[in-house]
Amino acid sequence: MTAKSIALSFTPIVILSCLHVAAWGAAENIVLAGQIAAQIKDRGEFASVRERAGRIDQRISQAISVEDVGQPKVWTKKIDGLWSVSIGDTFLMHCYPADASIYGKTTRQIIGLWKANFKRLFPLAEPSIHMDNPLAGSEAERELATAARAARLSQVPGNDWAITSVVLDYLAQVRSMPEARQTVLGEGEEEETIPCYDDEKTNLAIALISDIAWQQSNAEHYPEQMLSGHTPGKCEDPDCEICARAKAAAIERHEEQFDEVNRLIAATIAVRGSVTTVTNGFRLVRVQSEDDYLSKRVYVAYTLVKKVRGKLATAEKSLPPAMEPPCDNEYPGDTEQAPSGLTESG
Ligand SMILES: [Zn+2]
Q1: What is the span of the domain harbouring residue 175?
Q2: pTM for the predicted model, two decimal places
Q3: Ligand 1 centre from 161 Cα, in Å?
Q4: Distance 98 CA to ligand 1 centre (A)
């Protein structure tokens, strides 16, 4: 079994879109990453609505191959008198009044909705994660597209190079771990046990999620700077002090933020699929050939950073709002006496 035949499924964050469908009629769904991005009912310049949907699907496949779908630049503009949505240099679709009538809204409102949907869904359609992506063409085409995207996305933004390097260290560790526990003789002639990958994978995934949560918290105060020659996977020196310092600073635990960040980490681990997302990435690097691993590890690492940030964002929404700093007005519930009528004896 080759690495690329293993279908990895990073669990997408499922957000239910609430489309108010006024009339189904002969509407066709435009599906991206397993979710409905748009619904259409006008055949436009095509013989049928289905044919138009097929052409839009083709453009989406093309966009996945040639555009930066990890950080999609989705934009809208009137083209040929119709509101239209594009990603990068790839035109995706027009919005006709009949399409908008499905939703009972104007074309301008709907193009905004579609834009938001594409922006959210394109990052979930990254084929090196969804290697079984049905939208992509032949295996050879997929390989080419993945390599092109890996080369482009290997250029990690300056703000994220240190955390991506941290994740690369995890991937290297995971890749070198034995399948089974091993007992060896240590320096003092005492038996030591080397843990195996299966024993450690969940702990490592949680440690990685924690590091990314801390980096996110630290980045608000100390944005990172990329130092040329020290980009992830490029620094030649395995003991480089500059890289080591940057990595340590990125994930440093600041005591005054313990409560806040640990609360977020706990909530994130509880989010369904968050740990699996990381262990799926681990599994990928464990089965890759050496060439594949070396050429794609930065891409895999940076993809993991972004996936985990998605989980952190989901978890953050589930947390109660942070305490507001005290203001001049006395908070009505902040009095020492219980309000009358609410005492236990009353
Ligand atoms: Zn370095």
Answers
A1: 154-318
A2: 0.52
A3: 11
A4: 57
Asked whether residue 147 is assigned to any structural domain, the reply reads no
Residue 130 belongs to some domain of the structure: no
83, 108, 125 — which closes off a domain?
125
CA of 263 to the centre of ligand 1 (A): 33
Residue 165 Cα to ligand 1 midpoint, Å, equals: 10
The single-letter code of the amino acid at 279 is T
Q: How far is the CA of 195 from the centre of ligand 1 (A)?
A: 29
Give how many domains the chain has, as a whole number: 2
Q: How far, in Å, CA of 340 to CA of 346, rounded?
A: 8
First to last CA, the chain: 73
Q: Are residues 109 and 220 in the same domain?
A: no
- pLDDT averaged per 10 residues in sequence order, the chain, 346 residues: 38 35 63 87 91 88 79 90 91 94 91 93 64 45 57 70 94 91 78 86 96 92 73 84 91 94 95 91 88 85 92 90 54 43 38
- How many residues make up the chain in this entry? 346
How far, in Å, from the CA of 236 to the mean position of ligand 1?
A: 7
C-alpha closest to that of 295 among 189, 149, 94, 139: 149
93 and 183 co-located in one domain: no
CB-neighbour burial class of residue 65 (10 A; exposed 0-12, middle 13-18, buried 19+):
buried
